[in-house]
Amino acid sequence: MEASDQQIYFGDFRLDLADERLWKADSSITLGSKAFALLAFLADRPSRLVTKRELLDALWPDTYVSDAVLKVAVAEIRRALDDDAQSPCFIQTVHRRGYRFIAEVLADPESSGSADADTVPSSPARVSLAGRATVLADLDRRLEAARRGERSAAFVTGDAGIGKTALVDAFAERCAREGISVVRGQSRESYGEGEPYLPILEAIGALCRGELADTVLPILRRYAPSWLVQMPWIVEDGLRDELERAARGAQSERMLREIAEAMEAIARENPLLVVLEDLHWSDPSTLDVFSTLAQRQEPAALLVVGTYRAVDATIADHPVRELKRHLVGRGLCAEIGIEPLSEADVATFLRQQLGHDAPDELTALIHRRTEGNPLFIVSFFSNLVAKQCLREDENGWDLARPVAEIEALLPDELREILERQVDRVDVEVLPLLECASVVGRDFDSRSVAGALDLDGTTVGSALEELGQRRDVIRPLGVVRGADGGLSGHYEFSHVLHQHALYDRIGPMRRADLHRRVAEQLALAKAGPARLAHHYQAAGLDEEAIAHFQRAGEQALERRANREAVRDFGAALELLEKRSPSPERDQGELALRIAIGPALGSVIGPGSPRVAENYRVASELCRRAELAEAGLVVIPVLFGLFIFYLARARFEEAGGVAQRLRRIAEKGGEPFLLQSAYLVSGAADLYRGRLSDASDWLDRTLELSDPDVPLVFGHPIPSLACAYSGYLRQLRGRPHEVADFVLRAIDGAERGGDPYNLLILLQLAAGLQRWRRDVDATRDLADRLLAIADEQGFDPWRPVAGWFHAWALAEEGNVEEGIQAMRESLDQYQATGTETARTMYVAGTAEACLAAGRTDEGLELVEQGLAQVERSDERFFEAELYRLRGALLVAAFPKRPTVKGRKAAEEAVRRAIEVAREQDASVWLLRAALTWHDLRQKGGDEAEAQSLLRELIARYPKKVSWPELDEARRRVSSSSGQVT
User: Fold this and answer.
1) What is the DSSP pairing of strand 27-29 with strand 21-24?
2) Taking the CB of residue 684, how many other CB atoms lie within 10 A of it?
3) pLDDT tens figures, 310-358
């Protein structure tokens, strides 16, 4: 392979395969070896879906790893390329399948103009093409076939406004920049049959007036005179008579042959793209041109692309449907369907328009109301601006009205589009559709008939006839009711059809219909969330609250925490409308206890909203004189403790733990006691009170019932095992840790709650890191990341990232690892969680020590010690003092100053003192080793040797762990013994 063949250019970047380096201009960008190999593998296969299995087999041969390692490597690549995962320019994620490299790849940056211009679209293009990488890749593959002389054709289909034109515009513009000739024509809506060949004639006219005129006109004169004669404004007067003689008597077959031969001749000069848009309005003759270009057997560097709306073609029974069926069936053409945009794509659009992230509820509203249709999204946004729902200032756009008010708006532009279709419906059928719009996007004929007190057979026949047209509704088959009866199942062709019909109904009739529909759905045993919605819309709040609560409970049973928060939250909002009373307080307390654990898992246990939920619940307990009632108040106090623990407010956490113990011991129920003992043990562990923590956790495990994995939404036995593992590690019994890790994770897995499993995986990863088990730590981090991605638990991503970065540094990629560890630290702090940050800070400082970055390490240590004093989180205090001393020692010049040596000695002595006070044997042994390093530099190691011997004597010879083995080696080396 020559040097030029070992360079891959894309965007502003260059991959040097021989030197394994990524460059941007003249700057080298740090990229780990696996990340580089992954990027090179993808870039060598542009536009192609590369499956996860293929990547794992290629890059991790003969090694078992989970596909989470791919996510980590891709995230590293995206950071290096500054690529947005939601709107990528380089690497597209194909959900659950693999990845696709979507940037244009060049062998030479001069081969096709500016790589930057071709690869990185402008901001408006990125808005219109969000989520379209897969379709563009499909077109690219067909274009490559055309470049090779293989004739290719495709239909691009989708609903009105789905983005067909924007997609084809971008594709055609890129083709033109690459030197490909482009011919474009567009059909138009008319009330009669359109002018024959009009889109083709307009396309040829534009081509003859463009940059290729000197090439195209001679070709048309030679091959297609009957076409040129129809465009006298293009032809010189002297040639018109000659062309008319040549075209005299031309029939349709000849015209088709002429245009085909002319297009093929143009394609011999340059590959040719022919685009014919809106074929659902086209005349039959234009379809004949498309058919001829697609079916001719002669080789040609030609790609023909047609666009049409499938629904409109069906309604009008347009011949484009039969043409598509014929060509696709013979393998002469492909159908490329454009799907609606995802909610993430809508968020990207709003971010580009507003200048910052839009509120989640606005993104969800627009996606829900437009169902991801780009035209409707843009129209909806423009309508919000026109109606002054958005305002602009020096910082960009922001909301001027609450989202709840925006909910009621439907853009006038959309109303016109939809009402043209709705107006075609017979007046007698409209009430059925209005009732159906109340039922929902999909509905069955039986529910509509029951709600309107009409004959089911009559309603079923009317809907069946309307569904066959597929313009407003389309059939989905049949459904079986609770009594075994069958009825027709339908859905609105677009969600906005439903909204347009729903908005026609007056408020009183709408409420009555919702009540009637709810009654019918209850008979059909519909889900509680659906029933709650209808009862709420009917103004029946009591029924709605009960069903929202049941829906939340059902969501919890299915471990669907987001849905549980949504449903319990809806019940709470309705409950707030009721007048104060003991009954209302009792209902609110039950809801706040139920929502608490789910809320903590969704938005983070340290969120102020979590604290407010439990604060209100605590006040409700006080008002109801339930402040000492264990079964009621302990879940509230337990949740409040979790908040204080997450925010590292250990004094307040300790106070809550004391109150929990008092109430639980008064009641005496085992599951209340184990909850109280667990929080007491956790609070003492983080505060460095290891002996007390050990007592509480042992008592928790004695009471734990392995058959009851969850108590108040938390895996009490599993958490007790994990914290006990930490205690054994700290107190010099690391050989017992593995068993506790396995028990902890096993319990969490049996509990089935992904959030609780994340907590246990984090604790287990911390324990395996202390043991210096790189593979086990990385595997746990992989699982952490996979669950966080799958469940959308964003606060856990930096945790997984930090453990991965630590493993990277431990394997020798120190500089890269430190950078990633620091980034993860910043992200962790941004989540609002403070607990255990001293552990991550200490681990990062230790990596800085190994890399000789002493100033950076000392800065981190000071941050950690400041948090110790601020929060009273002291279980890593001794290690932070030891690292301060070790970093000061490493920073010594050849002849350290007296002041520097004294500072180092004071830090290490303080580490030894704190470790002895806490009975933290691991910290004590680590501090003793650092003390030995310091004394060796001063030429007086006797005291340090004595301390090491004292600590070694505590353990049988069969016990082995890294620090203990190192201490034995040093003592043996000093005494001349061989171990």
Assistant:
1) antiparallel
2) 25
3) 766 665 667 888 888 888 888 888 888 888 888 888 887 787 777 777 8
Rounded Cα distance between 207 and 276, Å, is 14
* pLDDT tens column, 64-83: 555 667 877 888 888 888 88
Tell how far CA 84 is from the center of its chain.
11
Instruction: List the Cα angle 969/972/974 in 5-degree steps.
Output: 105
Strand order in the sheet with 7-10: 7-10, 13-16, 21-24, 27-29
Indicate whether this model's pTM tops 0.70.
Answer: no
Q: What is the model's pLDDT at position 76?
A: 83
Separation between Cα atoms, residue 367 and residue 376, nearest integer Å: 10
- Is residue 922 within 8 Å of residue 772, measured between CB atoms? no
Contact, 766 vs 836, CB < 8 A?
Answer: yes
Nearest alpha carbon to residue 76 among 37, 45, 44, 31? 31
Closest Cα partner for 153 from 259, 296, 255, 252? 296
pLDDT, residue 836, reads 86
Q: Residue 339 has what DSSP assignment?
A: P
At 47, is the secondary structure helix, strand, or coil? coil
Mean pLDDT of 407-419: 59
CB neighbours (10 Å) of residue 427? 6
Name the phi and psi angles at 504, rounded to 5.
-75, -20
Q: Are 115 and 109 in contact (CB under 8 A)?
A: yes
Q: Cα separation of 786 and 666, whole Å?
A: 43
Mean pLDDT lowest among 122-136, 192-206, 323-337, 709-723: 122-136
Question: Residue length, the chain?
Answer: 979
**CA angle 349–354–357, rounded 5-degree value:** 75
Burial of 25 (0-12, 13-18, 19+ CB in 10 A): exposed
335: its two tokens? 């159908």
DSSP-assigned states of every residue in 517-554 = HHHHHHHTT--HHHHHHHHHHTT-HHHHHHHHHHHHHH
pLDDT at position 190 over 60: no
Flag the least confident range among 335-339, 460-464, 615-619. Answer: 335-339
Helix (H, G, I), strand (E, B) or coil at 27: strand
Confidence bin at 574 (pLDDT 50/70/90): very high
Q: For the purposes of burial, counting CB atoms within 10 Å of the CB of 864, is it exposed (0-12), middle (13-18) or buried (19 or more)?
A: buried
**Chain Cα centroid distance, residue 916:** 46
Q: Per the structure block, which two tokens stand in for 936?
A: 């060796």
Gap between the Cα atoms of 868 and 846, Å rounded: 17
Three-state SS string over 439-502 comes to: HCCEEEHHHHHHHHCCCHHHHHHHHHHHHHHCCCEEEEEEEECCCCCEEEEEEECCHHHHHHHH
* pLDDT at residue 927, as a whole number: 92
Query: Has residue 183 got a pLDDT over 70?
Result: yes
Long-range Cβ pairs for the range 484-488 (8 Å, 24+): 485/446, 487/444, 487/445, 487/446, 487/447, 487/456, 487/460, 488/444, 488/445, 488/460, 488/463, 488/464
Alpha helix ranges (H) inside 229-318 = 237-247, 252-269, 284-295, 310-315
Choose among 362, 330, 323: nearest CA to 346: 362
Neighbours of 394 (CB within 10 A): 4
Token digits for 476? 């989905």
Match 């004739």 to its residue by tokens. 151
Tokens of 698: 């042992």
* Cα 313 from chain centre: 36
Q: Which of 387, 413, 433, 375 is nearest to 160 (CA)?
A: 375
Nearest to 532 by CA among 574, 483, 471, 587: 574
